[in-house]
Design a protein that fits this description.
15% of the residues lie in helices and 29% in strands. The chain contains three helices and nine strands.
Length: 187
């Protein structure tokens, strides 16, 4: 009984013999795997979302090849979707940017007649800034307020006829009565 290695080797020998008989001059070449030229174009759909899974409007989505060349760019409409049609087969990177969010690169591989869907979740960008105060504020000047006297003769001639000092004090500038009846000094 022959071993597996012997059977495989015999199979390869038979295949080589068949190829030699079919092409005695040696003009046939081994076929290479399909490349992007032989691959029908596909598409890329980029869904741009925030961390709450809500669509992001007006985000810029650019589609770049593996070497960084930009194929096309789109702005997302209200539904947050950017569609790219007739994209050649291969690896493509979608670069998504929107003011207020961190930029994001997401990669997908396009194969024959298929649409690759890329879901891009953008995170809000954190802007940090600081302010250094190097000066001191000017000192607050304090001064006495103007004296104001309410004379007894003036009080007697008032139409309200106040009976106590607490009824007269609101007549002095800067003193007022709150809705609950308390007296307050302003300034």
């Amino acid at each position: 009984m022959a071993s597996r290695a012997t059977i495989k080797a015999a199979g390869l020998l038979v295949l080589a013999t068949v190829l030699t008989m079919a092409d005695p001059v040696g003009t046939l070449q081994a076929q290479e795997p399909a490349t992007s030229a032989a691959c029908g174009p596909g598409g890329v759909r980029v869904l741009v979302r925030d961390s709450q899974d809500s669509p992001i409007f007006d985000a810029k989505v650019s589609l770049r090849s593996a070497n960084g060349a930009e194929l096309s760019a789109r702005q997302t409409p209200a539904m947050g979707v950017a569609d790219f049609d007739a994209v050649p087969c291969g690896v493509w990177t979608a670069r998504i940017s929107k003011e207020g969010f961190d930029d994001l690169d997401s990669t997908g591989t396009v194969s024959a007649d298929r649409v690759v869907e890329i879901v891009a979740i953008l995170t809000p960008s954190a802007k940090h800034s600081s302010l250094d105060v190097t000066d001191t504020p000017p000192p607050v000047s304090q001064s006495a307020t103007q004296n104001y006297e309410v004379r007894p003769a003036e009080v007697k001639n008032l139409p309200t006829k106040p009976a106590s000092v607490s009824e007269v004090l609101p007549l002095v500038p800067g003193v007022f009565r709150t809705p609950d009846g308390a007296l307050k000094l302003d300034g």
